[in-house]
Hints:
The chain is α/β, with parallel strands linked by helices. The chain has 14 helices and 12 strands. The chain has 2 domains: 2-141 and 338-355, Glycogen Phosphorylase B (Rossmann fold, 3-Layer(aba) Sandwich); 163-336, Rossmann fold, CATH 3.40.50. The strands form 2 sheets. It has a 6-stranded parallel beta sheet with strand order 2-1-3-4-5-6, sandwiched between helices.
Amino acid sequence: MRVVLFTVESPDTICGKNTSLERIRHGLSQIGVDARSISSFGKTEEELRREFQEYEPEIIHAFNASRAGATASRLAESLDIPFVLTITGTDLNVDVFDDAKRQNVIANLNKSAHLICANLDTTEKIADLGVSTLATVVPKGVHFPNTSLQTDRFKEGFEEGDILFLLPANFRKVKNPIFAVEPLARLRNEGLPVHLLFLGHVIEDSCYAELVDVCRGRDWIHFPGERPRDEMYSWYRMSDVILNTSFSEGGSNVILEAMAAERCVLASDVEGNRAFVTGDEPNPTGLLYHVSSEPEEPMLRLHDVEDLFSKAEVLARDASLRKQIGANALAAVKKSHPPEAEAEAHLRVYEKSMSSYRFV
């Protein structure tokens, strides 16, 4: 089988979609599927069509209903093959609330032969939109291209007793990075040797500029920049707590990767994070801080600063708790998110879509 994994992002950008695409491509290759990654970045649609035709795919797998869906639909129709869509998060959590994008999102969902979701909450949203396309939950796997590298905290300028909170996310409003600053500043004021590290690529200049302005003069906040995928495992391992403060997540790769690196996660209690992290006793796999359930649009929901502060304080003061949660997290990932299962599930979706294909 020949499959095109299609995105609109530059292949050089380190982001969730490219991370998922490469992980899925690797997993499919392990079970004998010929999967090729193709991006529309910097290309005309005619150039894309020629690239697809030369490869002769049997199915297109596009990532994000809003940004990649329409192009994938047109290419699939011209090649007379089906296409499937992975819901990445912003398509159903942000773009569907934008009047200029909503109908495009729904149309692309309906034209797809099959929808792939990270959790049941997403399938329920699809049903609420009146979309009739079959949606399947495919649990994400975890794949690190390199686990041998080690990031040395001393060479990075940190001391042995420093408590490192790592927030890996590209800089854009939906990731809400600025929310982490003040709660951790309060921990610093209490005398705790807390450091906050932001890893990521600048997507929205205004978001990055606002964050830098808030962090100015705080030498305990660091911007190591965008790090290569090969280094990410070592950055997780160097850190003590991995943060996620997103307004919405379709199913964060960062959360699962941090758990697979045996690190404690502290994340916003939003659908995509709840699917991976449970704070329930006796074996919590991370901690979630409170986020209001209303309004319907996630970008307008209130995040509870006091709850983030109190949970960050507990983790900062209790190394043994961080270690236990990290161990629980690793065990949960091994049990529920094996990469080979993800690849096999995608193959079943492809086969089902091809057997029932009729372009709408």
